[in-house]
Structures are given as structure tokens and as C-alpha cells.
Specification:
Layout: E1 4-7, E2 12-15, E3 23-28, H1 39-57, E4 61-66, H2 73-82, H3 86-103, H4 119-131, E5 135-138, E6 141-144, E7 181-186, E8 201-203, H5 205-217, E9 221-227, H6 231-246, E10 251-257, E11 260-262, E12 265-266, H7 277-280, H8 286-294, E13 302-304, H9 306-331, H10 344-361, H11 366-384, H12 391-408, H13 418-437, H14 441-453, E14 456-461, E15 464-469
Parallel strand pairs: 3-4, 3-9, 9-10, 11-13
Antiparallel strand pairs: 1-2, 5-6, 6-7, 7-8, 11-12, 14-15
Helix pairs in contact: 2-3, 4-5, 5-6, 8-9, 9-11, 9-12, 10-11, 10-12, 11-12, 13-14
């Protein structure tokens, strides 16, 4: 498949050609695990999950690495607030992260390396920069000499004089130059620390990704991704560190997703308008959150409102209803499919599948890919009402819809006990039907209420009672 990616480094769409045919080395910056992730954090988590899914769908073997920053000023502060150790805080919120992404239908990464498990390799990386003159020690800290790396600013397309340093870039008297950034932070009294050639301390923020990406994916990545806010300074500093040490390009393709606003305002702690995934999934279907994220192109800003999330819920329900109706309609046919040719329906399905593939291959254009999904849903709904609908046609429509869903993940995935649960539901529906026939209305209502509590809705159709998960 032909995949085009907008490369932040070149500011242009480029044909995706991995270094090794059939294999993709992909690194996406993960969370600093000091709190629950918010809807802004969820955007790269969901989007790059879809990138990974599509590349796998296209036949690639994807080695997908997402790190956990498990030591940091924020974790130290949170540990003090909660009366826990830094590792205990990290474990608490890594578990919460894994629960949140599972609820959103996000597949776990190939590996989630933690900073605290890679201190020796990080120290070795820093030592290499010191040995080559790209870094220097100062009163227990180690800093990177930005002026020595001539291409500093090439990712964010700024020159050194124009750059304004953001979060976690400290300016102090220990630096040779205000634009230098920290690689190793000397420990303050009572702080978690590790021994190093420069004294006890811990890694700076940027160095961790350079060291871990190199350890698991080599000197050059195929794809490096993250939020737009990471482009500078975090990714710019990664480029400087890695390329100074290895002499090779850190990543061939850089991808950055846009911001999320809340009711047209920037999401920030000062405004108190942050929404955690942990809170949101209690009142919104997780599939609707995925839909909301994917309904806008990943490089564009996204605005969260009650109206947009309600629209997303309606949209995913339409897709889910279509899938459920197709499965139910298929179950009503007697005997096996006889191989009847699909004719015009087959041509239309092939056209919509090609449309979906073309949009996903064009810089992962999920909103236009979703349009193809809805065109398929319309086609399926119309076909199911035809008197000449065949099992071959229903099966082909269902296979096409499930194939698209394999990439987008808008339908809930069956759990390990799904078959048993389905059997239980079917048995309850049979019992309810028998109760109604016997005019045992109390038992019939009891079963309906039980199913409703478990998120199961019953619907009467011309082919009999059908159930679906809410």
C-alpha cells in the first residue's frame, strides 16, 4: 500500500519507506506518570494507536515503543503530597494509564520502557556526549552545549537566537549559555537519586527518550511521534542529543498531532478545565471518545464540547447498530452461503474499501476514512431491507465493516469471556420469550431489567428479538 506521511522535519508529505522492508520502528513519547491522563493526552494515544493499526493492516511488522517517565519533578512533588515514594506514585498511575487506554480500545505498545529501569544506559549516553564535547558538568549537573550542534532548531524550524525555552528547561548560573539544557540533574537533599560520574542525581527529561529509543530501536527510527507541544523543546533536544552522539538522523519521519481545546479555550490547570479520561469514560461511551478524536485530522486543532461528544456518541451508535443488524440478519438465513456472485454490491464494497485505504494512506486522514465507513453503513442498511438480500451480500458487508474497524477501533472488542456472555444473554432472551408466552410478565420484566443493568438493549425486528450492547 502507498502510505504518505506529513513529515514535520521537512514540512511536506513524503512516501513512507521504512529502513527495513516490511518492518517499522516507531517511537511515541508517553506520559509522565504522576496523575490520570486527560483528554489532551488521549489524542496522541488514540491517534498513534490507529497509525500502528493501519501499518499492521498494511502488512508491516511494527515495533511500537511508548515510554513512561517515572521520575521527574512532578512525581517527586506528587509523592510528597500523597505520602508515597516516587516508585509507588509511578506504579499507581501506570496502572491507571493502562486501565484508561484499555477502556479506549487502545492496544498496548510492544514495550513501555521506564526511565528508572534504564539509568545505566542513560548515564552512558550522557558520558558519550561529555567525551565528545557536546556536554559539560557543572556543580553536579550536566548540560548540553546547544551552540556546538549546528543544526539545532531544524525540527521546529527556528534558529538558535529565536528559540524561546519552555517547560523543564531551566536557566541558571551553572550554565555556560542560557540556551543549554540539562541532561543530568544533581539531587537535592532527600530526593530520589542514582550515583553517576557527576555525583548523585537523576536524568533530565529529554535524555531519557534518546537513550531508550536507541536501546530498543537503534540509531535511526522510522517514525517518531507525539503531541505538537513536544516538537519544541523536547523533540528538538532529542535530535540534538542523539545526532551529536551517533552522527545519524534520529528519525526519518516526524509526526505531531494538534492541540485539544475545551469549549474553545486552551486546556490548562489555571483555567481548571481539564477532563481526565478516568472521569470521562464514566459518562461517555469510550468508542465515542475515539470517534471524537479521529473525526478531525490529527494535525488540526480539536475542540471538545458537550455537543461534539454527543454527536460522536450518536455516530458510533449508528455504526454499532449496523454491525449488530448485519450479524443478526446473517443469523436468520437457513443453510450455508451458496457462493452467489455479488454483482453491483461487490463492486460497491470494493469501491468503498479502496476509498477507505486511499484516505488512510494519505497521511492517516481518519475523518475522510470515517466518511467511507458511513457510506458503507448506508449501503448495508439499504441492502438489509431488500427482499433479495443474500447471505453472501450480508457477509461481505459485515467483513468490510469489520475490516475498517480493525484500523479505527470504533466497535467494542470482544473480551476473553465474550462467547460465554453471549450465550448467557441468548439464554435469558429465550427465557424471557417463554415467560411472555406463559404471561409471566413479572419474570419477563425482571429479565429485561437485568439485561438493561448489564448494558444490553433488546429490539424487536422482523426476524425476531435482537440484542445489542449499549
Amino acid at each position: 500500500m502507498n502510505v504518505q506521511i506529513y513529515n514535520t522535519l521537512t514540512r511536506a508529505k513524503e512516501a513512507f519507506v521504512p529502513q527495513e522492508p516490511g518492518k517499522v520502528k516507531m517511537y511515541v513519547c508517553g506520559p509522565t506518570v504522576y496523575d490520570y491522563i486527560h483528554i489532551g493526552n488521549a489524542r496522541p494515544v488514540i491517534f498513534f494507536d490507529v497509525v500502528r493499526r493501519y501499518l499492521e493492516h498494511a502488512g508491516y511488522d511494527v515495533n511500537y515503543i511508548v515510554n513512561f517517565t517515572d521520575v521527574d519533578d512532578k512525581l517527586i512533588k506528587k509523592a510528597e503530597q500523597l505520602g508515597l515514594t516516587v516508585p509507588e506514585v509511578a506504579d499507581k498511575f501506570i496502572n491507571a494509564f493502562n486501565e484508561d487506554i484499555a477502556s479506549l480500545g487502545v492496544h498496548k505498545a510492544t514495550l513501555n520502557p521506564r526511565v528508572t529501569e534504564h539509568i545505566p544506559s542513560i548515564i552512558a549516553f550522557i558520558q558519550g556526549l561529555v567525551d565528545t564535547g557536546y556536554a559539560y558538568a557543572s556543580e553536579g549537573d550536566v548540560y548540553y552545549r546547544t551552540s556546538k550542534f549546528e543544526e539545532y532548531g531544524k525540527l521546529s524550524h527556528q534558529n538558535l537566537e529565536e528559540l524561546q525555552f519552555g517547560i523543564r528547561i531551566e536557566v541558571g548560573e551553572r550554565k555556560e549559555n542560557p540556551q543549554d539544557f540539562v541532561l543530568w540533574k544533581g539531587a537535592k537533599p532527600g530526593e530520589i537519586n542514582w550515583e553517576s560520574p557527576w555525583g548523585p542525581g537523576r536524568p533530565g527529561w529529554h535524555i531519557e527518550c534518546s537513550a531508550m529509543a536507541r536501546e530498543y530501536l537503534g540509531d535511526t527510527l522510522d517514525i517518531h511521534g507525539g503531541g505538537h507541544d513536544l516538537q519544541f523543546p523536547h523533540h528538538e533536544c532529542e535530535v540534538a542529543q542523539s545526532e551529536a552522539l551517533t552522527g545519524k538522523q534520529l528519525a526519518n519521519y516526524w509526526m505531531h498531532n494538534g492541540y485539544i481545546h475545551i469549549n474553545n479555550e486552551k486546556m490548562s490547570k489555571s483555567l481548571g478545565n481539564g477532563i481526565t479520561v478516568n472521569e470521562l469514560v464514566k459518562r461517555v461511551k469510550p468508542a465515542a471518545i475515539r470517534y471524537f478524536i479521529l473525526s478531525t485530522h490529527y494535525r488540526s486543532p480539536l475542540n471538545f464540547t458537550d455537543e461534539t461528544i454527543a454527536q460522536a456518541e450518536n455516530s458510533v451508535e449508528r455504526i454499532a447498530n449496523c454491525a449488530a443488524n448485519l450479524k443478526h440478519r446473517l443469523s436468520t438465513f437457513d443453510g450455508q452461503a451458496d457462493g452467489t456472485a455479488l454483482g453491483e454490491l461487490g463492486d460497491r464494497i470494493a469501491q468503498l474499501k479502496a476509498q477507505f485505504e486511499a484516505k488512510m494512506g494519505d497521511d492517516f486522514n481518519t475523518p475522510d476514512a470515517i466518511t467511507a465507513v458511513f457510506e458503507l453503513v448506508t449501503e448495508a442498511n439499504q441492502y438489509m431491507n431488500r427482499s433479495d438480500a443474500s447471505p453472501e451480500g450480508i457477509a461481505a458487508l459485515l467483513a468490510a465493516l469489520e475490516g475498517m474497524n480493525t484500523v479505527l477501533g470504533l466497535l467494542p472488542e470482544a473480551g476473553a469471556d465474550a462467547e460465554l456472555l453471549d450465550d448467557e444473554i441468548d439464554a435469558l432472551i429465550v427465557e424471557r420469550t417463554e415467560a411472555r408466552a406463559a404471561k409471566n410478565w413479572a419474570r419477563a420484566d425482571e429479565i429485561r431489567n437485568l439485561l438493561t443493568e448489564k448494558g444490553i438493549a433488546l429490539e424487536d425486528t422482523p426476524q425476531g428479538i435482537r440484542w445489542r450492547r449499549l
